Amino acid sequence: MNSNLSLYPSPTVMVDIVIFTVEQDTLKVLLIKRGIEPFYGENALPGGSVQLEHDHTLEDAAKRELEEETGINHTYLEQLYTYGSAQRDPRGWTVSVAYFALVAADEVRLKAGSDAAEAYWHSIQGHRVEFPLAFDHAIILQDAIERLRAKVEYTDIAVHLLPQAFTLSEFQRIYEIIMQETLNKSSFRKRVDQAGIVKPIKGQMRTGSNRPAQLYRFTNTNNNRLFFPRSLVWAEKK
Amino acid sequence: MNSNLSLYPSPTVMVDIVIFTVEQDTLKVLLIKRGIEPFYGENALPGGSVQLEHDHTLEDAAKRELEEETGINHTYLEQLYTYGSAQRDPRGWTVSVAYFALVAADEVRLKAGSDAAEAYWHSIQGHRVEFPLAFDHAIILQDAIERLRAKVEYTDIAVHLLPQAFTLSEFQRIYEIIMQETLNKSSFRKRVDQAGIVKPIKGQMRTGSNRPAQLYRFTNTNNNRLFFPRSLVWAEKK
DNA sequence: GTAATAGTGTCTCTTAGACAATATGCC
DNA sequence: GGCATATTGTCTAAGAGACACTATTAC
User: Fold this and answer.
1) Which of A10, B40, B113, B137 is exposed most, by the fewest CB atoms within 10 A?
2) Closest by alpha carbon to B26, among B122, B101, B149, B141?
3) Residues of A in contact with B10 (CB under 8 A)
């Protein structure tokens, strides 16, 4: 059976998800090695069919995939783009609604999904996706990286890559890793301060063999407001 | 028949399109009065099923809808968002991939689509969609208006609402109509100049009972580059 | 003390916006 | 000239980035 309303055949609808984290000073994406045809044994983004009985919305399906892969059910999740054509899957006309998620590395517990032999973090180097992926997933990943880089400049979504408590240096470092540029410290702090998106946590600090840093936590207060009045301007190279 | 690849039933896939124009100093959207059930006789966005035999991609389907409704086949067209749930259509689980298009008022030739009794321009007043539309189309339209307003601030897409030849005052007026704010004239001109997105047309001018304005045409050169280095800051009210 | 990172302050330069001056058409 | 809109120029203020200074810990 299918649920088609019209006289016309309808394409198969999948949901794929690009899950980013930052770990060991590197931007990483969650990939799986496919356990079924087509593209058996090749790398791909996690994803699957919408389950009409269980998923009430597309976002439900994306959340389900995210939780299946990482065990995480509350984090930053955003619809990326919808890819649909007769060519993108060798089996015929398909539509993939792609999402992208940001998860804090310390919260992830990887498990393999049902059609995946294994799930693992793949490091992203440079600005282009240079490695092969099944279907058009290399294009989807490329688009996701560009969306991430664009939104990081004018929103506060990067906090979702950090643990609950973090220092301003760690926060800045996240920006530098994603953008692959160096940021000016005082400007960054000034703008974080003005944006009012973080709040210092009581007496807590963190150690090293140097001055300890103030810990902060994210404040949800500026919902979807612009982070920076200007777009970020990156530090000049010396 | 259907083309489902999986064991699961797949939702019906539609493409809906939000077509904007600016006419008589007003932002307008193209609506149709539905000629079939459900929502017979109610207002809706133009749209229809993906036709697997004719459309090679989702964008093909959107372009086909756009041309069916307006006769225009080359203009600004961008995927907006994908809406999918069990509830949005009374007939069951559907997915609608929504696009939005900008068309110049002088290029449109309205014709009714196959499932539409009539197509017409509806004026948009204020910042909220206050009138009822079929399905979740009021939400789609609201999202489209917000996307348009957001992108107008940092891209040059507004030129697609103008005729081939236009004056800088007309260009600025488009911004003011979409944003419902007054812009500072000299700042606007300075930035348009720096962005290098328009080029004066040879000796041409346009008349009134006052100094005629230089005519410009759009230059495609800065493909997808940022229009404004800062986001636009609107003129203070006196 | 040194090393290392956290955090702050000052100075300069760019640019948006206010405001006004000038330009050019029609009557 | 008078009116209306086009176009340009000047001044000020806000904010970004360079750079350097101070602060605080471990050793």
Assistant:
1) B40
2) B122
3) 2-3, 10-13, 49-50, 52
